[in-house]
């Protein structure tokens, strides 16, 4: 029984020492500070959002302004501004090489920046619409001139004269040689050109020749019979 009572007493939590009380107090103070910081951060976000909503609303109602550039701000502030701009129907972009120099620009939808304008902001340059338009026209003119020059080089050049006229003396000589060769071949093989086979006599002359041949043949037959 005594052993059981002793084990129970030994297992009971001992009264906190002075050092334990101090560490617990510090822990409670730190938790309170953290809570206050979180509440302050939340309050600042709410206030910043209200401020951005007011500025964005004024920007939208101003018919003269087309874009608005903000000073560099932190990542959380940029995120809030992007969200406010999206709700208002605006376009927003962040620019800057490092976190400390990052800033936001907002644009009205009808004046949304081109890719060329965005590239200029990313390079840290100011955008001049008039100069950009002049550069665009020069590029289009240069491209048109290049296309015209390329088309003229690809177009086949027409000969100044017909090749038959230019080489008529050679063609004529070749044709004459071919005709002479054909004539010799006809003579060698007893061939008569079709043009030479045509009978140019009239029908009456042809009939008279036929009758004369018949009379001649009949006379020869009669002479042969009389000799028998």
UniProtKB/TrEMBL annotation:
Biased composition regions of type Low complexity, renumbered to the chain: 149-161
Pfam families per record: R3H
Biased composition (Basic and acidic residues): 21-46, 125-142, 196-211
Domain R3H: 46-109
Gene Ontology MF annotations: nucleic acid binding
Annotated stretches, region: Disordered: 1-46, 125-169, 187-228
Protein name: Sperm-associated antigen 7 homolog
Taxonomy of the source species: Eukaryota, Metazoa, Chordata, Craniata, Vertebrata
